[in-house]
Amino acid sequence: MKLLAANMFRFHVTEFPCFLTFFLFFGYLVSAKGDISFDQNYYITWGNKNVLSLQAGAEVQLSLDNSTGSGLGSKLNYISGFFTMRIKLPGPDSAGVVTTFYLSSHSDNHDELDLEFLGNKEGKPIILQTNVFSNGEGNREERILFWFDPTADFHNYSVLWNAHLIVFFVDHVPIRVFDNKTNIGVRYPSQPMQVLLSLWDGSSWATGGGKTKIDWSHAPFKAYFQGFGIKGCAVVDQSCYFSKYWWNSISKLKPTQQSAYENVRKNYLIYDYCFDRKRFPKPAPECH
Fold first, then answer.
1. First-to-final CA distance of the chain
2. I want to staple 189 with a disulfide (CB 3.0 to 4.6 A). Which of 111, 221, 243, 267 is the partner?
3. How far apart are CA 165 and CA 232, in angstroms?
4. What b-and-e string marks burial along 256-268, b requiring 16 or more CB atoms within 10 Å of the CB?
5. GH16 domain: which residues (predicted)?
6. Catalytic sites, residue numbers
7. Within a 13 Å sphere around the CA of 228, how many CA atoms are in the beta-carbon half?
8. Sequence-distant (≥ 6) Cβ neighbours of residue 43 within 8 angstroms
């Protein structure tokens, strides 16, 4: 698929109508900054020296230097929810740098829902890659470009996950939908998963297929995170699939969301595994 022209990065509100509908659909307004300290729901998983708590813990800076990256993980595992994080990505000339917000189980045949932000050389677009693993099987990558500069300010990135479908969002605009198609033999993520954040060296693959490496003269690279409340059902709750949790009742996009989703697919999608005949001569069953 062809790379989009630079002018497609401009964001036009008219391209994504009825934003208020999206907010009301999810039943709350996301504040500009996190209202709780990160350590209420998260802990440092690695790279302690490169984790900096800001604004009394309402914001966290993860950094990457040539010795280590850094990461956070939720204290609990979840089986459904609407998981949101406000993220400001590392600045220009971040080729090879990978920032992540994802959910993952910890079994050998793991489930995983990925939002991976792939840095780039200054003046070239940062790419958002999503992926879905179920029972250890991945290779479901999709890539989109942004309609804004994700390094200039914080933006909302979200994953809705329930027994019906998985939806990835950017600023409440749906960018990817993965339906539960176990009825035709497609594996679907169902294991308890932890919420994870990280910043690390992806030079081996992230930019230009690994041809463009990190320029360490620009280190340390810094990513910022806000919004550490978690709207999810932890595995300690025996009613995680019940309708008392609003996110469990969602089985499809609303018409306004569907329109915005189709706009993203038309104008910002640059890779979809379903159309990659070189890698997959026979498309996966969920692609039909």
1. 19
2. 111
3. 15
4. bbeebbebbbeeb
5. 30-225
6. 112, 116
7. 28
8. 72, 73, 75
Give residue 65's identity as a one-letter amino acid code.
D
Q: How many CA atoms lie within 13 A of 16 on its CB side?
A: 23
Contact 82, 160 (CB under 8 A): yes
Q: Rounded to whole angstroms, how far apart are CA atoms 274 and 69? A: 32
Mean pLDDT value across residues 213-230: 97
- The conformation of residue 152, written as its DSSP 8-state character, comes to T
Count CA within 13 A, CB hemisphere, residue 23: 10
Nearest to 178 by CA among 117, 132, 143, 233: 132
pLDDT tier at 15 (50, 70, 90 boundaries)? very low
pLDDT in tens, 21-48: 344 344 333 333 447 999 999 999 999 9
State both tokens at 201: 């060296």
- 115 contact partners, CB below 8 Å, separation of at least 6: 100, 101, 102, 128, 129, 130, 157, 159, 168
